Amino acid sequence: MKAHEHIKEDLNNYLKRMQLSTVRRRYEELSQKAQAESMTYEQYLWELINEEYQERRCRRIERLLKESRLPMDKTMSTFDMKRMPRKIAQQAKVLQEGEFLSRNENILAFGNPGSGKTHLLCAIGHELVYRECRVYYTMCANLVQELLLAKRELRLPAMLKKLSKYKPIIIDDIGYIPQGQEEMEVLFTLLADRYERGSVMITSNLPFSKWEKIFKDPMTTAAAIDRLIHHSVILEINLVSYRMEQAKGLKNNG
Ligand code: ADP
Ligand code: MG
Description:
Helix 7 (140-152) crosses helix 9. This protein is 59% helix and 9% strand. It has 12 helices and 5 strands. It has 2 domains: 3-67, no CATH class; 83-247, P-loop containing nucleotide triphosphate hydrolases (Rossmann fold), CATH 3.40.50. Helix 9 links the parallel strand 3 and strand 4. The chain is α/β, with parallel strands linked by helices. Magnesium ion is lined by residues 117-118, 172-173, 203. Magnesium ion binds next to helix 6.
């Protein structure tokens, strides 16, 4: 058997090199606990590895959350699901499991301003991050500006490649700001690039019938819609604006 002091030295070394920092930090204390509580070898191993695993998971989720750029406050816990029609609530429950991602399905949320489209999709986004998905949230207008800049600097392919790592991308408020030909083109390029390769989640105040405002000519509009809806879940949320309701509620109570 290996001499005790060598074991310690080797272990520390190995664990450092394998980047098992929690195991390294905790194995001695836990082994004392194991002795005191007469744990089996397996129980001890479980305790130790479980700590390493949870610690890593925590750090990973923190990293994913930061990278997602999701608004921190728009989560399920701050969302009043009772406001949603039953069908939407049911769909949201299924969607947050994330199975749609492996089928590269899209989620399209339509409805009047203030219905809760952005909040709901972001809340689903948070749930997906918790399941360790790489989510990316962006306002459509910002995304388009970034794509345009990338195109001008001849790094559009690189940017598309970077975005392709995220599943899903949440594109908030498509069609909210009127766009020119160039803007429309890069947006179309992104949607075409993701078609059947990665989910997008979109919110829009404009129904499909008005999407010619976004994509200008009827052919491109049809092509964009076609790609988006081919594999998709459509959430129609037409509610009285939450903000309006809150404001009225305050007035009535005050
Ligand atoms: P939309 O994107 O449909 O215009 P938002 O998601 O931005 O609407 O909602 C408008 C505001 O109302 C946001 O501050 C949002 O957090 C809040 N809100 C909307 N629906 C709900 C809800 N069901 N529960 C809690 N807050 C909500
Ligand atoms: Mg919105």
